[in-house]
Design a protein that fits this description.
- This protein has 258 residues and is of the alpha/beta class.
- The protein has helices spanning 11-21, 23-29, 37-45, 76-82, 122-135, 152-158, 172-181, 219-224, 242-257; strands at residues 3-5, 31-35, 50-55, 71-74, 91-96, 112-117, 139-143, 166-169, 185-189, 195-196, 206-211, 227-230.
- The chain has 2 domains: 3-96, Ribosomal protein L30/S12 (60s Ribosomal Protein L30, Chain: A); 102-257, Alpha/beta knot (3-Layer(aba) Sandwich), CATH 3.40.1280.
- The protein contains 9 helices and 12 strands.
- The chain has a 7-stranded parallel sheet, sandwiched between helices. A 5-stranded mixed sheet has the order 1-4-3-5-2, with helices on both faces.
- Strand 6 (112-117), helix 5 and strand 7 form a beta-alpha-beta unit.
- Helix 1 (11-21) packs across helix 2 (23-29).
- The longest helix has 16 residues, at 242-257.
- The radius of gyration is 20 Å and the shape is elongated.
- One of its GO terms (cellular component) is cytoplasm.
């Protein structure tokens, strides 16, 4: 029989709030939140293990296929407390974190990687994951992570694509070695580059490397780069938002590959 929670003081509800608000809680308990019918469905298809599914009939009655003993019904008032969306659809899951290792990454015959160094904003990381999925990239590799990949804001901004593309935490040194060992040429995006992003060849194995908007890429990546590329600015500013830059370069790579 499905459990029903109506109290805001229920320990399960308090724990969800902690997971929503604290990266430390997520890491210590190896749990994170997924809100939304579509996002939960993508997670299930990717093999993510769901601990509990919370739903509120006050929003909607049809839900993902989850074992009945894991389903917990909550009142609309309770769901409003645990939700992190402006327009919730009534579904929120607590899921197990399963970190992916670079050594476990299975590359396609002609890989395209996105490497992000020290990107801070969850919205930017989520948007890049969504773009990388749309462009058919093999993986998004995150160096010197400044935001929690399991943050509710990353999952929301990614529209669930954090589950459809390999998102891997790694060091710059390990990622550079991985690229060299797999004969993946490194294209480092930097405003100081001489070549425009349209003047290089993306048809073979490539890693597009991007840094934080304020600091750019580390010296390690600039020295490891096979090519340094830039998006030429025609106006008064000297750079684009990192998620916009990633989209521009990735879809140039996709255009050339097609």
């Amino acid at each position: 029989m499905t459990m029903i929670i109506e109290s805001l003081e229920n320990p399960k509800i308090k724990n969800i709030v902690k997971l929503r608000e604290s990266s430390r809680q997520r890491q210590e308990r190896a749990l994170f939140l997924i809100e939304g019918y579509r996002e939960i469905g993508l997670a299930l298809r990717a093999g993510v293990q769901i601990e509990n599914l919370f739903y509120s009939p006050g929003y909607i009655k049809r839900g993902p296929a989850i074992e009945e003993e894991k389903i917990i019904e909550v009142s609309k008032k309770v769901f409003s407390k645990i939700s992190y969306r402006e327009k919730p659809d009534g579904f929120l899951a607590v899921a197990k974190i399963k970190d992916k290792k670079l050594a476990d990454l299975k590359l396609s015959a002609n890989p395209l990687l996105v490497v992000l160094e020290a990107v801070e904003k969850p919205g930017n990381l989520g948007a890049i994951l969504r773009t990388a999925d749309a462009a058919g990239a093999d993986a998004v590799i995150i160096n010197d992570a400044k935001t929690d990949i399991y943050s509710p804001n990353v999952i929301r901004a990614s529209q669930g694509t954090v589950f459809t593309i390999a998102a891997i935490l790694s060091s710059a040194a390990e990622t550079i070695e991985f690229c060299k060992n797999n004969k993946i040429r490194i294209f480092a995006a930097t405003p100081e580059a001489k070549k425009e992003y349209t003047h290089v060849d993306y048809k073979e194995a490539r890693a597009i490397v991007m840094g934080a908007e304020d600091k750019g890429l580390s010296q390690a990546w600039l020295e490891a780069a096979d090519e340094k590329i830039k998006i030429k600015m025609r106006g008064k500013i000297d750079s684009l938002n990192v998620s916009v830059s990633a989209a521009v370069i990735l879809f140039e790579a996709l255009r050339q590959r097609n």
